[in-house]
Automatic annotation (TrEMBL):
Organism: Solanum stoloniferum
Family matches, as CDD domains: O-FucT_plant
Residue ranges of the TM segments: 21-40
Biased composition regions of type Polar residues, renumbered to the chain: 570-580
Keyword field: Carbohydrate metabolism, Fucose metabolism, Glycosyltransferase, Membrane, Transferase, Transmembrane, Transmembrane helix
Protein name per its UniProtKB record: O-fucosyltransferase family protein
UniProt biased composition (Basic and acidic residues): 502-535
Family membership noted in the UniProt record: Belongs to the glycosyltransferase GT106 family.
Biological-process GO terms, alphabetical: fucose metabolic process
Pfam assignment, any one: O-FucT
UniProt feature, compositional bias: Acidic residues: 536-555, 581-593
Example of a GO MF term: glycosyltransferase activity
Region (Disordered): 502-593
Length: 593
């Protein structure tokens, strides 16, 4: 009997140890389940993260205009829309072409020995650049010798720089030797200083306009100075004259060595931290906002401050902020620019260089943009005060540094349609169609107004749709539309043979069906985008507030044509005259740099 009792006791001991083991294993499984549940996001949280919401606490400070969206909430894959973020579609098939035709006579054969044209530019750096470019063409039309242009030193920008302080004057003269005779100074007349006759010409004066108005005076006085020379030449000219514009703007106008060297240092420092970078011309300064007449939610303080600045321009009428914003006439806020870029696929790791003056609202206004793109730079952050000192008291030289960094960027973003934006857009088209993003402000306004009611995917999709045709791709703007400096279509050629060869290689390798269909769809979308390009002809008309009066000395230089037209024709000054002459004397449609 003793043996069975021991077996029974042994069985109970096994059972006694089995229950704790099962309990321990169950506890471990339960712990793992709870741990994984904590790590996994809840469906409600996920839905919350997918919506763009205003930070209610910020509305009291900003008047409801600011949107506080931490960058971690705005994660959009760059590959979703099948677009290369750092290059333009089909750009390899287009190139700049500005050589003169065989019919374009050499300067030495057509320049009259006793005709001198002097011009005085107006405005900031890029406004002056357009004046210099057009001055060369005007001298060619008049068969005159051009004296190196004088830069504006008296207007709003108050910059005392001479031409040679900003541009390489010797290169300028030498590079254009075969096109126009250029000298540094007006020669003495009978051993005495020669005072040229001063006059004005209308805005966008055609070649016929110059022959009718300026040539008779030039033949009589022999030296003529045209003042306030900005956008004083027609947008549409003979092909050879348009190509001359391109040779001046893109090849002859080279910055002075000191500016080039400092600009190249800034570019190198941007490249050291990242393979690619975006340059943003923000243009959110108080004067820009005041001129636009837009309202950004700052209450009475904003209305008072900007209203006071706006009164500098006596010709401006009362503004309608809501209408201006609906029509796309208001610059995007820094945050809206950031949201647009994130929606287009640029992640928070992208490096951004910001070219801007004093931003209205300071760091508080910039904070949302910096939250979306923490790698945020300007010339003041990547260069020492000592390095910038030689340039800092000259607005045009500082603008030239920003110009270089923006020109060399992988992507250039402009928040306005001013002179720097136009010049750089045209230059980037000419040199390979590097991506240049212009916000389609009219359409994006509706998206920003409704962003609280859509997911990030919906927001991104709409931004992509509305930005098609505003990204700097080839042929997205019809030839002849907009300012020539922005869209130099005459100077851009297409390599049709290379495109045909690529299509042949696709067919040969059996990759043509899918690729060609996709390429065709893309081209169809691009062509549709051109049709709906609503902002291309819009020019904010920001001028120097002090520049609202005509010159007193024969402001429009009106004289009878007499026999000068026959002489001009016989000398081959122009072969294609417009049937109408520009008489537009309205306030210059010029936006400061």
């Amino acid at each position: 009997m003793a043996i069975p009792r021991r077996r029974h006791q042994h069985h109970h001991s096994h059972v006694r140890f089995l229950f704790p083991a099962i309990f321990a294993v169950s506890a471990i499984i339960l712990f793992l389940f709870l741990f994984l549940s904590i790590l996994a996001p809840s469906p409600n949280d996920d839905n919350h993260l997918r919506h763009l919401r205003r930070d209610d606490s910020s509305e009291g400070k900003s008047g409801g205009n600011e949107i506080r969206v931490p960058s971690s909430r705005f994660k959009i894959s760059a590959g979703v829309h099948n677009r290369d973020l750092w290059s333009s579609r089909n750009s390899k098939f287009f190139y700049g072409c500005s050589n003169a035709s065989s019919k374009f006579a050499k300067a030495k054969t057509i320049t009259h020995p006793n005709r001198y044209l002097l011009i005085v530019t107006s405005g900031g750096l890029n406004q002056q650049r357009t004046g210099i470019t057009d001055a060369v063409v005007a001298a060619r039309i008049l068969n005159a010798t051009l004296v190196v242009p004088k830069l504006d030193k008296t207007s709003f920008w108050k910059d005392s720089s001479d031409f040679s302080d900003i541009f390489d004057v010797d290169w300028f003269i030498k590079h254009l030797t075969t096109d126009v005779t250029i000298i540094k100074d007006l020669p003495l007349r009978r051993g005495q200083i020669w005072t040229p006759h001063r006059m004005r010409v209308p805005r966008k004066c055609s070649d016929r306009c110059y022959i009718n108005r300026v040539l008779p005076v030039l033949m009589k006085r022999h030296a003529v100075q045209i003042s306030k020379f900005d956008y004083r030449l027609a947008n549409k000219l003979d092909t050879d004259l348009q190509k001359l514009r391109c040779r001046v703007n893109y090849h002859a106008l080279k910055f002075a060595d000191a500016i080039l060297e400092m600009g190249e240092k800034l570019v190198q420092r941007m490249r050291m931290s990242s393979k690619h970078y975006i340059a943003l011309h923000l243009r959110f300064e108080p004067d820009m906002l005041a001129f636009s007449g837009c309202y950004y939610g700052g209450g009475d303080k904003e209305r008072t401050e900007l209203g006071k600045i706006r009164r500098r321009w006596k010709t401006l009428h009362n503004s309608n902020p809501e209408k201006a914003r609906r029509q796309g006439r208001c610059p995007l806020t820094p945050e809206e620019v950031g949201l647009m870029l994130r929606a287009l696929g640029y992640g928070e790791d992208v490096h951004i260089y910001v070219a801007s003056g004093e931003v209205y609202g300071g760091e508080e206004t910039l904070a949302p943009l910096k939250a979306l793109f923490p790698n945020f730079y300007s010339k003041d952050t990547i260069a020492s005060k000592e390095e910038l000192d030689p340039f800092s008291t000259y607005s045009s030289r500082m603008a030239a540094l920003d110009f270089i960094v923006c020109d060399e960027s992988d992507v250039f973003v402009t928040n306005n349609n001013g002179n720097m934006a136009k010049i750089l857009a045209g230059r980037r088209r000419y040199f390979g169609h590097k991506p240049t993003i212009r916000p389609n402000a009219k359409k994006l306004n509706r998206v920003f107004l409704n962003r609280n009611n859509m997911t990030t995917e919906e927001f991104s999709s709409r931004v992509h749709t509305f930005q098609r045709g505003f990204m700097g791709d080839p042929k997205e703007v019809r030839p002849g539309r907009g300012e020539f400096h922005e869209n130099p279509s005459t100077c851009i050629c297409e390599d049709a043979e290379a495109e045909k060869k690529m299509d042949w290689d696709r067919r040969k390798n059996g990759k043509d069906n899918v690729a060609k269909k996709k390429d065709g769809d893309d081209r169809k979308k691009d062509s549709e985008a051109v049709v709906h390009d609503e902002n291309v002809d819009y020019e904010p008309e920001m001028t120097d507030p002090e520049d609202e009066e005509e010159d007193e000395d024969n402001p429009l230089g009106e004289v009878s044509l007499g026999s000068s037209k026959a002489e001009a024709l016989s000398n081959g000054t122009s072969t294609d005259y417009d049937s109408s002459m520009s008489e537009d004397t309205e306030l210059d449609e010029l936006l400061s740099d």
